[in-house]
Design a protein that fits this description.
By secondary structure, the chain is α+β, with helices and mostly antiparallel strands. It is 37% helix and 12% strand. The chain is built from twelve helices and eleven strands. Strands 2, 5, 6, 7 and 9 form a five-stranded antiparallel β-sheet that branches. A two-stranded antiparallel sheet has the order 1-8. Helix 4 runs antiparallel to helix 6. It is flat, with a radius of gyration of 22 Å. 27% of the residues are buried.
Length: 305
């Protein structure tokens, strides 16, 4: 399998998610957008930590009132283990030879970490009133909230819901590195059996057009569109009050609660999709590519972006 040869025009693409999509420094598939999978905590609780290992998580949890949990009560052992393994995949997987090993102290520590979570959650027997993750975080009932950020509105509402006291600290990783990951709704390659590679390249180029990038749900991967949306998100909106005065437009608590419920549904949907497709992996893109995929054009300059 040969890498995708890209011209200097890829300077238009956000560097970090593009780098995360590479394998051994080579690009075999192109993400057309990106999101960020992370875990959110209050700055006053988790902001002092320079690493975020399982021991750090347990230390932070010990500072909350008795009965507090790491995540909300809906997460099961299997779901949490899936998250933790995905974020620590490099510790268990050898991507070069396709082997894995779980007979390690690090994996046993993960098993101990997920023990407090329920094996299954009994939705039928739950009669408690719903509390959003953000409310539980502010009330000291919960340490972290796993989430996926797919747009600037996600950032806005997350900061607003937690009164700007927020840290995207991510999931625990024993090597001390960031427990956050990029994800993509779609990555593109060209098969060796493709009968119209020129047409395939034209299609791939079309996904990097401004019109297409402005229409997608996730963060756009084209830098100019990303920066334009960021600037738009930072523009303060105003409304006119009864006296005709311009006042800053702010979201009320009902709007935030509605957003929280919608985010929880969206996160559950994403989590199920990743479980089905094995798409969520270390650095967000590190899963093994199909051996039949070949998106390289080594000799023809016209085949470059």
């Amino acid at each position: 399998m040969k890498p995708l040869r890209i011209s200097d025009q890829l300077a238009i693409i956000e560097a970090q998610p593009l780098n995360a999509a590479q394998t051994d420094g080579k690009l075999y598939r192109l993400p057309i957008d990106f999101g960020v999978t992370t875990a959110v905590g209050l700055g006053k609780v988790v902001g002092e930590y320079t690493t975020w290992t399982l021991a750090d998580v347990n230390d932070a949890l010990s500072k909350l009132p008795e009965g507090a949990t790491v995540f909300n009560k809906y997460y099961t052992q299997a779901e949490m283990l899936q998250y933790c393994i995905a974020m620590n995949a490099g510790s268990f997987m050898n991507w070069q030879d396709g082997t894995c090993s779980f007979d390690t102290d690090e994996f046993r520590a993960l098993l101990e970490f997920v023990k407090p979570f329920p094996a299954e959650y009994d939705w039928q027997s739950d009669s408690d009133d719903h509390e959003s993750d953000y409310t539980r975080l502010k009330n000291g009932k919960q340490l972290l909230y796993p989430t996926s950020l797919s747009g600037f509105s996600d950032l806005y509402y997350t900061f607003a819901a937690l009164n700007n006291d927020i840290r995207f600290i991510g999931f625990p990783r024993e090597d001390g590195s960031s427990g956050n990951a990029f994800n993509a709704s779609c990555t593109l390659s060209i098969s060796t059996t493709c009968k119209d590679k020129s047409g395939a390249w034209t299609f791939i180029r079309s996904t990097l057009s401004d019109d297409y990038q402005e229409s997608i749900w996730n963060y756009p991967i084209v830098k100019s569109v990303f920066e334009a949306k960021a600037q738009e998100a930072m523009t303060q909106e105003y409304e006119t009050d009864a006296d005709g005065n311009q006042i800053e437009l702010k979201e009320d608590e009902d709007a935030l609660d509605t957003f929280n419920l919608a985010r929880m549904d969206a996160d559950n949907e994403r989590q199920n999709r990743y479980a089905d497709e094995d798409e969520l992996a270390d650095a967000g893109f590190d899963y093994v590519a199909d051996e039949e995929v070949d998106a390289s054009y080594d000799d023809d300059a016209d085949d470059e972006f």
